[in-house]
Amino acid sequence: MTNDTVSVKPVQHPSATISPAALRWPRGFRTSVGAAAIKKAGRDDLALLSMPMGATAAAIFTRNLFAAAPIEVSRRHLKDSRGHASALILNSGCANAATGPRGLSNAQEMVDAVSLALGCAGESVLVNSTGVIGVQLPMDRIAPEIAHMAARLLSGAVDASHQDSLEPFARAIMTTDTKPKMSARTIDCGGGRHVHVAGVAKGAGMIRPDMATMISVLATDAEVDPRTLDRILRHAADASYHRISVDGDTSTNDSVFAFASGTAGACDETVLAQAFREVACDLAKMIVCDGEGFERSLSVRVTGAASRADALRVAETVASSLLVRTAITGGDPNWGRIVAAAGRAGVAFRPSDLELRVGGILIFRDGEPCPADRDLVRAAFNGSHVDIVISLGASEGAEAEANSDTFLSCGLTTEYVRLNADYTT
Amino acid sequence: MTNDTVSVKPVQHPSATISPAALRWPRGFRTSVGAAAIKKAGRDDLALLSMPMGATAAAIFTRNLFAAAPIEVSRRHLKDSRGHASALILNSGCANAATGPRGLSNAQEMVDAVSLALGCAGESVLVNSTGVIGVQLPMDRIAPEIAHMAARLLSGAVDASHQDSLEPFARAIMTTDTKPKMSARTIDCGGGRHVHVAGVAKGAGMIRPDMATMISVLATDAEVDPRTLDRILRHAADASYHRISVDGDTSTNDSVFAFASGTAGACDETVLAQAFREVACDLAKMIVCDGEGFERSLSVRVTGAASRADALRVAETVASSLLVRTAITGGDPNWGRIVAAAGRAGVAFRPSDLELRVGGILIFRDGEPCPADRDLVRAAFNGSHVDIVISLGASEGAEAEANSDTFLSCGLTTEYVRLNADYTT
Predict the structure, then answer these.
(1) What's the confidence (pLDDT) of residue B246?
(2) Which of A2, A86, A209, A373 could serve as A120's disulfide partner, Cβ 3.0–4.6 Å?
(3) Which residues of chain B are within 8 Å of residue A249 when distances are taken between CB atoms?
(4) The pTM is what?
(5) Is residue B6 part of a domain?
């Protein structure tokens, strides 16, 4: 994938090296999962993350006016604690959104159950939910299950290998995801000291920039103050979760949480930010490639815009166009839809200056189609990933490179429609 | 359909009465269709409209930067003629968009062929195309066919009933439309004098506000000056074509043309505007209900916004949401997606003030679901039309009514995806 925003190349930093790492939680974190039959019996649908020694915390929440009840609670707790937390409780199967005062008291009850069972302050517990909107949580099953999960976590009944692995937690928060989404990096700080950065996510539907029914949790054992952690998180989200789209809808429950336990000591901010960004970009790509009904991904890179905002706007418009996305699904070299989508993005450029390349093949220049090998063009539209590059010709040289952005999406499939036509029923 | 924007009720005007009329062209118009095998052999794909005594003319064109070559020609001619025309030539099967200088000269050649054959000035001929983008027109077949069409028209070889009917013209401009789209009204001006207003349209894909691969032609035998005709056309388009969406993409070739032959004499502007609006709303509804893969329509009426623009923005966001549109297809009462879409429209309101009704049933109020009969709710989501009404509670009484707008769309179906995944191939 030639996608330099969403796919970040590992960098060598003078003082530290970042490399892929085992899919385990950093030191200072413990997890426990449970099954409360929230939507379906017999599968894990509760996930508890505990930071026994405490942690600094940051989060980005949906901007949807119908932010779910747990988002309201988490926002308040994060503010009251000035960026500290000792636990996070998540559930899948029910979003606890559009549920009124009862929903709010249920979210609070989830927090209270964790606080009671782990013996930590209520305001140090964060909470979120994902699933169907407008349905109340089955608290009669959730509250006791949280107590059992906490008990298992505290008693050490969870065996060490299971405890450390990202997978049970990543699985418990899945909704229509087909795969758990996990990524990790190790930073070699020199002198035998290592910092670990790990992340999990759930995606599947309602994915678009400014997030969606996406929940992601990023964790590190580095020592980071809340302000810095917040900055690192926003930087990472900007390059990843804010550059992907599955269906253009944002949800009531979108959130990315970041926690730093501090167990591993300090770490250079630039290096840590890079590791966060790599993990976040991995997860964002996994979300797109596990979008509902996924068959084929596409990236739209726009260069040479009059500004970076213009580049993003054109990239997002093309990547989100239903006509482009259905053409991608069909492996259909109907590139006219790509230029037509660029032309309606609301960004000023001269149509005769636009150059379009798909899979590296020049398709359109000087306002008309280029003579290109039909079979090569067809092949470019038929790979597992379709790589679209648009140069708007509104800036040149270094400026053209600076005024560029990339957006990641996937083909729109009949399976997506089938899945979404029948979600509550 | 409780949809007071797109569905306009006939009004009684003191001086005149509007009533449905036969689907024929008004006096002062003649048509001829032809087959040039532009995309497929054996079907009509050229449509010629002739105004032998001349006509005043107005048009609305796409705002896409990649406006097709014929749009460029028509725009210029309409300006040069100061709103007069004596012919319009349309083709389906090829959009002549993103085709560079050769495309422009082909559009000009179509105009020249009409001008030569009908003996009228080149600048009095308008032209447009619809179909695949980025492909050149087969001028070797089109130019001679235009000559034949004009000859048939002039010689009267077309029998009178066929000549007058809207249907051959409406059929010749179809692409993936499954039905020709036609509507007409008669205005009884009193004293035995009648004015006729008729229209045809093609729609199917790439439909969204500010128009799409939509082409519509409205014609009247009333006497109207170009400025008034332009005003009447914009008023009609605003209530119809600009309030519908099939897939959120605008195309390179969108256009609505209006012509007035003057044969029937003057008509009160208000009455004539109302008749134009009724015809345009009929056609807009037909476009949505013949959207690619159409199964079920939906209307979203938003009232009580802080402004009418806010109402439109929420209505359009909800009506265009993929998650809402797939739920509608599934007859799935997943109303949470409706409030979630309203919440991300970028319009300020208090979530606890929002009221949602579907098929007249109150579903959501005071920030939480209302107790509603499950079977009734399911039935409201399962009719041939789903009627969504959202009150934002940001204004009250007469102001709430004024700050309202309605948007029309349709369920997103697997058939839509199938059709669009394989359009050029």
Answers:
(1) 59
(2) A86
(3) 321-323, 337, 340-341, 344
(4) 0.78
(5) no
